[in-house]
């Protein structure tokens, strides 16, 4: 393959990526609300459904077919046979196709941040050193042949021949010897990585239906995508609660449904205990997102939750988000949330799928 051909292929591939990214930007609100990307998610990639575009091409007809081009024609005469009677019955022609193109979650996060105008997160606390980055910064006389520096070797040989009077400008032949060979050397520089932990908490009492949990799942996916873009090391913990709280895995978090009452303070207490036992606020960036339909057991528990937020959770959190899905009755927990004045506390109502897009912007718009 020639250099020109390879260069053209690279240009075409780059242009195609730009087309795909433009398609995602135009339809981001739709993707956020209907979960189309989540269903096609791999380990580090998602599949983007893009309508296939057929490039225009010349198609030749049969010879001596008569009509325009073969004789006289009248104004308005069609330039082809066309479809005189329309489609009748089942067709035998292929229809439009959908092309699925893979996009990395990193690219998706960039688009999300740009379209929602999300500010870059500025991590707090200490930085944990994880591994290092190799940089080639010097030259040495020993090393593997794969790191042999042709230019430095040639320069050393030229200097040696010139200093010894062996270089002939009329016959400029430079022949390196063993002492002339130079190799690139490297140093390992520490690569600091900020660590973060997300606590997802959700009410799984009888009033939390599958549709409500789907709103939570879609919202959490985009929160994850953005935070993973900002933190190279991210830990996720899942807490469910009805009248009591417990930690579960991701699958259980989205599928468990209990029949008991609701006591939100149980989840806040468990979250606070996990932080005290495992996460030093000086070293970890911490985020918590609690989802509920707003029902809670009595005003006393609301008061206890407010005290725990103000005294134990918000002081150590980068951000605490409360998302209220529809369906609750009576006094809603959102009334307790809005009474707490703290920039790190964000309360959002997620009334339906269309509201997820705006909820993400509310949750992540401060860049804490």
Explain what you see:
The protein is α/β, with parallel strands linked by helices. The chain has three domains: 1-53 and 97-115, no CATH class; 129-191, no CATH class; 194-364, von Willebrand factor, type A domain (Rossmann fold). 35% of the residues lie in helices and 21% in strands. The chain contains ten helices and ten strands. The protein has helices spanning 3-26, 28-34, 105-115, 150-163, 210-230, 250-255, 264-278, 298-313, 334-338, 356-364, and strands at 45-51, 98-104, 128-140, 183-193, 195-203, 233-241, 245-248, 285-292, 319-324, 345-349. Helix 3 crosses helix 5, helix 5 packs across helix 10 and helix 7 (264-278) packs parallel to helix 8. The protein is flat.
């Amino acid at each position: 393959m020639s250099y020109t051909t390879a260069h053209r292929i690279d240009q075409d591939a780059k242009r195609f990526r730009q087309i795909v990214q433009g398609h995602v930007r135009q339809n981001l609100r739709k993707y956020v609300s209907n979960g189309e990307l989540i269903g096609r998610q791999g380990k580090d990639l998602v599949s983007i459904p893009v309508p296939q575009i057929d490039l225009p091409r010349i198609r030749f007809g049969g010879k001596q077919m008569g009509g325009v081009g073969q004789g006289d024609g009248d104004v308005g005469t069609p330039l082809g046979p066309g479809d005189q009677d329309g489609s009748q019955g089942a067709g035998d022609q292929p229809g439009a196709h959908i092309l699925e193109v893979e996009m990395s979650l990193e690219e998706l996060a960039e688009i999300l941040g740009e379209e929602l105008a999300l500010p870059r997160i500025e991590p707090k606390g200490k930085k944990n050193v994880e591994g290092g980055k190799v940089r080639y910064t010097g030259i040495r006389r020993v090393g593997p042949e794969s790191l042999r520096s042709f230019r430095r070797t040639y320069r050393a040989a030229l200097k040696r021949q010139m200093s010894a009077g062996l270089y002939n400008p009329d016959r400029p032949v430079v022949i390196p010897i063993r002492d002339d060979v130079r190799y690139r050397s490297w140093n390992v520089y520490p690569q600091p990585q900020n660590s973060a932990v997300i606590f997802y908490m959700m009410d799984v009492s009888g009033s939390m239906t599958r549709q409500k949990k789907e709103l939570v799942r879609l919202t959490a996916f985009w929160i994850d995508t953005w935070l993973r873009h900002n933190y190279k090391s991210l830990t996720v913990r899942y807490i469910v609660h009805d009248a009591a709280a417990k930690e579960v895995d991701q699958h259980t978090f989205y599928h468990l449904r209990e029949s008991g009452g609701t006591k939100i303070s149980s989840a806040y207490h468990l979250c606070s205990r996990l932080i005290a036992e495992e996460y030093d606020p000086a070293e970890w960036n911490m985020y918590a997102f609690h989802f509920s339909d707003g029902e809670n057991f009595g005003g006393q528990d609301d008061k206890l939750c407010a005290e725990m937020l103000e005294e134990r959770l918000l002081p150590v959190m980068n951000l605490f988000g409360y998302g209220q899905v529809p369906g609750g009755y009576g006094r809603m927990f959102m009334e307790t949330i809005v009474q707490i004045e703290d920039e790190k506390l964000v309360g959002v109502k997620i009334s339906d799928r269309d509201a997820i897009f705006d909820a993400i912007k509310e949750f992540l718009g401060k860049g804490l």
